[in-house]
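> example.struct
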């Protein structure tokens, strides 16, 4: 009996692994990677689940991993004297937490699940290895960071002009 349960568990794990690879293909960062490389990435990362209200990480924490959101939505929040401010909402096929890794700094924001979330957690070393092995991913990471910086600058300038009025 125990062997049958073990086989079922193994098949279930293989199905999850296949799902992860299919989901990674949908993430813009990884969409052009060869399937064999996606398998390595899925194997080197940890699948994690969160319930609505759970925090993936907090502003000020050390950045030890990036998270690829497979399903669900998260809120990106920053602390302020009047309480948390929601910067944006992110959903499946996005990556969060890479800024603290790249800058070797603490987390710049809190990321909290607003729904149930399934994600792949990629450790700092694996993330850097991925970037050195696949320069095209490095370019995509830079583009995403540049887009976020542009969006933040636009929002900041809009907020400043509203405060002057």
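> example.seq
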């Amino acid at each position: 009996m125990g062997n049958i349960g073990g086989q079922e568990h193994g098949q279930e794990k293989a199905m999850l692994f296949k799902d992860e690879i299919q989901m990674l293909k949908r993430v813009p960062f990884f969409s052009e990677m060869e399937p064999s490389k996606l398998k390595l990435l899925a194997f080197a990362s940890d699948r994690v689940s969160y319930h609505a209200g759970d925090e993936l990480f907090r502003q000020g924490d050390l950045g030890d991993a990036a998270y690829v959101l497979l399903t669900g939505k998260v809120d990106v929040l920053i602390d302020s004297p009047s309480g948390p401010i929601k910067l944006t909402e992110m959903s499946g096929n996005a990556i969060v937490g890479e800024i603290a890794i790249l800058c070797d700094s603490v987390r710049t924001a809190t990321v909290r699940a607003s729904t149930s979330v399934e994600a792949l957690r990629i450790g700092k070393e694996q993330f850097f290895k991925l970037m050195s092995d696949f320069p095209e991913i490095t370019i995509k990471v830079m583009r995403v960071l540049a887009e976020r910086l542009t969006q933040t600058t636009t929002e900041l300038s809009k907020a400043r002009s509203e405060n002057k009025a």
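> remarks
The first strand starts at residue 46 and ends at 50.
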